Automatic annotation (TrEMBL):
This is Bifunctional protein Aas. Pfam families: Acyltransferase. Pathway: Lipid metabolism. The keyword Flavoprotein does not apply. SUPFAM superfamilies: Glycerol-3-phosphate (1)-acyltransferase. The keyword Acyltransferase applies. Keywords: Acyltransferase, Transferase. It comes from the Bacteria. Residues 37-148 form the Phospholipid/glycerol acyltransferase domain.
Amino acid sequence: MMRWIYWSGWMLFRSAFRSLFKLRVKHKERLLTEGPVLVVSNHESFLDPPLIGTLYDDEMVFLARKTLFRGVTKWLYPQWNAVPVDQEKPDMSSLKAIIRELKNGNRVLVFPEGARTLDGELGEAQPGVGLIAAKAGVPVQPIRIRGAREALPRGSGRMRLARIEVTVGPPIDLKAEGLAGGKDKDAYKKIADRLMAAIAEL
């Protein structure tokens, strides 16, 4: 079930992605639609969070830069399940909030690169996503986005018509792969690199 304010945004973006950007989703049958899931994706554009949100028929939790919570969005973003993150001074509070959401049974979207790409190439994964995955102990769903950068590049305020494609990867069970036991930065970085590699393979 979706709350009406979430549903209204979901409907708006879903219609836009289908009509304006001719969204194509490959391997949608791989989506984990029940229980807590850590969704990890490459980051091309501001369009990415609502784009991935429209793949599901119920609500999920997103991360958003703390600086975006101003004016009307200070009220709206929390209604859309956005968790503020301070990119300039990252701390454990945001990571703990994400882990708490996952342990409460929610689906959460995280971008391992931490920032939108400038040139379209995949960036390096940050160890924080490895920490989240290790501590939460939930399945991980890798997703690859293509075309969102062409539709709304970083640094541009003008939308462009471009074909967007999303590829859903097979779920990852870190415990089964022997990656869930580490409790230090090196272990978290290894997990983060594994997740980024899964995205790159799509």
